């Protein structure tokens, strides 16, 4: 009621909003420019105090019987969003309830295809990703522990986004630089240093053997190009070797180096001045360097994370960056050196291989940090499993199995279902709603928390297994999926608030206030239901998805 009465917008109101920059400002100063605009429009606005529920006052405008409330206030008060746009030379104000988007599926969900809309994801640039580890090739999270840890959900999402990008993006531009055999690479070898080619029986390939005597490195100048993804197989004989890529920001005339060194330290940075500018080096640790390091590095991301570590923020432009040269120091072997515009396939397999290496004997990917759910209640101690982590890992591993045919991926995905049959109290992820409906917990708390989006991701993982696994291995996945879908259809209405959704059911199980889903989670709920509706024709899925979609456009359920 109140909304429809007072909300209307006029040019002058919008001008004021712009000055306030979306921040509520209780008393705007009427300067002469505004007065001029008011006179020019020959409309007669007056200032008027708006009393907000009798609690406090803000400054509004009045024109005859209409009252104008600053959008900067409404935006905060109702959590709505607005921006000024120009269409056909005319300025316009666009109001929206939700800042999130829904991607309507056009075809049936395909477990070997793009994962949801993850081709739009860029997991590694997220703030909560510290960097991509040079030893593991997967992201390190800082979400719940600043020192960093591997979070299976994030590792799987990293892989799923690269799998999806592989299917949707143009083929990468690839420049092979050195493969140890008949390469044309023109290495610059200083006096006392050497470079030779050698047959390596273990890998059955020719490799480059390098040795730089002192501090002068062996370098390879790169032809101009915009490719920023480095590939290299590298084995150092001494612990003081390094492979360094020199880059420049063409706009800022700034030089950067990204250096891979034998060190247990994940990421570190150093700065020094070189003539007019400064030389900024980001180091990634390759661990003990006992074995070949297989590197697939997005140098832009590597630099960005170094910048963030130094407190320089994220103001690095990918398109301004150029790789200038590659430098080798110390003694060792090098193979498969290449630079390309992307390498989604290798990043995808880095993630799949990480999941294979780090699955424990119970089929779980344990999460090594404490998770606080609700101020001291229902905490999870390090070592917990997440049904969402298991499910997303299964989605990734089944795609790796589909692509490669390698059985280790299938076996890991099948083992990943084990915690679904073990209750949260016994270290699994299975809970029951009202002792009746089985639910797979993203956060297996006691009492259960029933997080909706994590549950649905786990169902998608089960569906991927039951669809892509050989028929005689898919029955467990079928059973768990069917039970889960049955629960989902029964419980979905409990997540509906009439104007949005709740993220979980903590208001029921913990007696806390409802945990309203912010718009991106609400949109995720809708996206997930729309995906499920392409594989399960039960109209409840589309009916609820449509209703929830309407909430994003301000259409609420009717009241009595
Ligand atoms: C996707 O993977 C295929 C097979 O490995 C490869 O040929 C293709 O170039 C890749 N495309 C992109 C965009 O990564
Ligand atoms: C080396 O060159 C030969 C002949 O041009 C070619 O057949 C072979 O594939 C090349 N080897 C590699 C590893 O590229
Ligand atoms: C690197 O280490 C090796 C052996 O540990 C040593 O002989 C060599 O002098 C070192 N080189 C430099 C540049 O420090
Ligand atoms: C920048 O610094 C790194 C590390 O200190 C060094 O290896 C490199 O040679 C320097 N580059 C330039 C152009 O000075």
Automatic annotation (TrEMBL):
It catalyses: [heparosan-N-sulfate](n) = [heparan-N-sulfate](n). Its EC number is 5.1.3.17. GO terms for biological process: heparan sulfate proteoglycan biosynthetic process; heparin proteoglycan biosynthetic process. One of its GO terms (cellular component) is Golgi apparatus. Pfam families: C5-epim_C, Glce_b_sandwich. Residues 359-549 form the D-glucuronyl C5-epimerase C-terminal domain. The keyword Electron transport does not apply. It is a single-pass membrane protein; Single-pass type II membrane protein. It is an enzyme of class 5 (isomerase). Pathway: Glycan metabolism; heparan sulfate biosynthesis; Glycan metabolism; heparin biosynthesis. Keywords: Isomerase, Membrane, Signal, Signal-anchor, Transmembrane, Transmembrane helix. Residues 204-331 form the D-glucuronyl C5-epimerase beta-sandwich domain. One of its GO terms (molecular function) is heparosan-N-sulfate-glucuronate 5-epimerase activity. Belongs to the D-glucuronyl C5-epimerase family. This is heparosan-N-sulfate-glucuronate 5-epimerase. The gene is EOG090X0272.
């Amino acid at each position: 009621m109140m909304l429809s009465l007072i909300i209307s917008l006029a040019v002058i109101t919008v001008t004021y909003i712009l000055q306030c920059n979306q921040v509520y400002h209780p008393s705007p100063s009427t300067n002469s420019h505004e007065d001029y605009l008011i006179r020019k429009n020959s409309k007669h606005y007056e200032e008027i105090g708006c009393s907000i529920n009798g609690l406090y006052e803000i400054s509004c405008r009045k024109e005859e019987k209409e009252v104008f409330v600053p959008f900067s206030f409404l935006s905060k008060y109702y959590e709505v969003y607005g921006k000024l746009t120009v269409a056909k030379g005319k300025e316009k104000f666009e109001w929206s309830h939700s800042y999130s988007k829904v991607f309507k599926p056009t075809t049936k969900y395909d477990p070997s295809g793009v994962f949801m809309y993850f081709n739009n994801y860029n997991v590694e640039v997220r703030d909560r990703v510290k960097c991509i580890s040079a030893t593991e090739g997967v992201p390190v999270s800082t979400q719940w522990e600043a020192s960093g840890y591997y979070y299976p959900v994030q590792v799987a999402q990293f892989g799923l986004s690269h799998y999806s990008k592989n299917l949707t993006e143009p083929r990468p531009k690839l420049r092979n630089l050195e493969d140890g055999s008949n390469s044309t690479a023109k290495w610059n070898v200083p006096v006392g240093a050497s470079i030779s080619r050698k047959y390596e029986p273990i890998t059955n390939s020719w490799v480059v053997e390098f040795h730089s005597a002192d501090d002068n490195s062996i370098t390879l100048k790169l032809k101009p190009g915009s490719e920023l993804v480095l590939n290299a197989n590298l084995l150092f004989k001494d612990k003081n070797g390094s492979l360094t890529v020199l880059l420049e920001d063409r706009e800022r005339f700034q030089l950067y180096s990204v250096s891979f060194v034998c060190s247990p330290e994940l990421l570190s940075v150093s700065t020094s001045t070189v003539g007019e500018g400064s030389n900024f080096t980001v180091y990634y640790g390759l661990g003990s360097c006992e074995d070949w390091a297989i590197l697939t590095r997005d140098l832009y991301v590597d630099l960005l994370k170094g910048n963030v570590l130094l407190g320089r923020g994220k103001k690095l432009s990918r398109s301004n960056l150029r790789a200038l040269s590659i430098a080798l120091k110390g003694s060792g072997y090098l193979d498969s050196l290449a630079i390309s515009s992307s390498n989604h396939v290798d990043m995808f397999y880095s993630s799949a291989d990480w999941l294979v290496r780090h699955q424990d004997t119970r089929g779980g990917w344990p999460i090594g940090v404490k998770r606080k759910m609700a101020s001291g209640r229902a905490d999870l101690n390090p070592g917990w499993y997440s049904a969402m982590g298991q499910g997303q890992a299964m989605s990734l591993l089944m795609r790796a199995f589909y692509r490669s045919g390698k059985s280790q991926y299938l076996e890991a995905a099948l083992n990943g279902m084990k915690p679904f049959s073990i209750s949260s109290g016994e270290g699994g992820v299975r809970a029951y709603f009202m002792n009746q409906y089985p639910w797979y917990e993203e956060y297996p708390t006691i009492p259960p928390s029933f997080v909706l989006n994590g549950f649905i991701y786990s169902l998608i993982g089960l569906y991927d297994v039951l669809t892509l696994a050989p028929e005689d291995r898919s029955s467990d996945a079928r059973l768990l999926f069917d039970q889960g879908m049955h629960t989902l259809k029964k419980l979905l209405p409990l997540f509906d608030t009439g104007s949005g959704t709740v993220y979980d059911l903590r208001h029921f199980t913990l007696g806390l206030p409802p945990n309203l889903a912010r718009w991106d989670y609400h949109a995720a709920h809708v996206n997930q239901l729309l995906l499920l509706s392409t594989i399960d024709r039960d109209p409840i899925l589309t009916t609820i998805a449509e209703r929830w979609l309407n909430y994003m456009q301000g259409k609420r359920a009717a009241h009595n």
